[in-house]
């Protein structure tokens, strides 16, 4: 059996642990398994590049951050566009055949899964694995990489808190997550942030400033965990691309700096912001992610052995299972503004910047 593995989209902790689990399972349990790494995600498949991997390539990578295969972003909307007489999708299918693959593991986020579903429709034997610090893949309770990012963001806010308290400042900590606020929600609660602003709950600037002023009566500093995709209620009616365009004109990609300025002006508190950025994606996976990645990788390899393709591994109710790619492609798992976690946080006094 010829097996290809690729990692696509933004990297995160746990990718190498999945690669290792797939590799070791196949070497141990599939007679005559030949494993090929495809470099740079779908980029390598489009170019038709691969390299042979064996047990020694998997031995020492469990706790290594990033991906030993390399990755790239290949926008989904470009996949079916003809370029010099052929689309990227056609090139990938051709190269899948040329490489003689019997199975392709695609480790990636929501975009990667959309392309994986297309490859599957075109007859490639694809098995997806749910990766992303955003935790927004539909049909799985959790994605690998998420928990490590939660730990990093929580630890960062803990550290920021001591300097903020010393200076009696208000600090906005910008956390990754453009569409989904899971990472901000979980790390915000875990670090005791006073306010959590996420894309799913557009915030009202008056409510934010009022909360900052009021909470100063109890505590001389404020921590606001803000997702990079957080949105003003007044701009929520515009498309994401329109908001991005308007911000780009102001030299910004997110609303964080603008909000910090407004809070500072209106409340008279010294206000700063910190963007955590790629720290959240880098470094060694936490133990939870090492275990999750290993379980998902082993499970996916077992699916390949039994000839089950066109699916992606998932966690549902704590059990490892799978979903059809066609059922999850193009869908997102977002934070429901009324979910128990948000409700609980509100009950203990956390503000989400809405007017309730
Ligand atoms: O992979 C998810 C993510 O980290 C998002 O949270 C973030 O918006 C985006 O990737 C950043 O992407 P890039 O690496 O292309 O800057």
How are the secondary structure elements laid out?
Elements: E1 2-7, H1 15-29, E2 34-37, H2 42-47, E3 51-53, H3 55-58, E4 82-83, E5 86-87, H4 88-98, E6 103-108, H5 110-121, E7 126-130, H6 146-167, E8 170-175, H7 182-190, E9 195-197, H8 205-215, E10 222-227, H9 240-249, H10 256-267, E11 271-275, H11 287-305, E12 311-316, E13 319-324, H12 325-328, H13 340-347
Parallel strand pairs: 1-2, 1-6, 6-7, 7-12, 8-10, 8-11, 9-10
Antiparallel strand pairs: 2-3, 4-5, 12-13
Bound molecules: 6-O-phosphono-beta-D-fructofuranose.
Short description:
The protein is an alpha/beta fold and 356 residues long. Helices cover 40% and strands 17% of the residues.
Written account of the structure:
- The chain starts with a strand and ends in a 9-residue tail after the last helix.
- The longest helix is centred in the middle third of the chain and has 22 residues, at 146-167.
- The strands form 3 sheets. Strands 3-2-1-6-7-12-13 form a 7-stranded mixed sheet, with helices on both faces.
- Strand 6, helix 5 (110-121) and strand 7 form a beta-alpha-beta unit.
- The model has no long low-confidence stretch (mean pLDDT 96).
- It has 356 residues and is an alpha/beta fold.
- The protein has helices at 15-29, 42-47, 55-58, 88-98, 110-121, 146-167, 182-190, 205-215, 240-249, 256-267, 287-305, 325-328, 340-347, and strands at 2-7, 34-37, 51-53, 82-83, 86-87, 103-108, 126-130, 170-175, 195-197, 222-227, 271-275, 311-316, 319-324.
- 48% of the residues are buried.
- It has 13 helices and 13 strands.
- The protein folds into 2 domains: 2-144 and 285-328, Rossmann fold (3-Layer(aba) Sandwich), CATH 3.40.50.450; 148-281, Phosphofructokinase domain (Rossmann fold, 3-Layer(aba) Sandwich), CATH 3.40.50.460.
- The radius of gyration is 22 Å and the shape is elongated.
- The structure holds 6-O-phosphono-beta-D-fructofuranose.
- Residues 9-10, 73, 109, 132-134, 176-178, 228, 281 line the site of 6-O-phosphono-beta-D-fructofuranose.
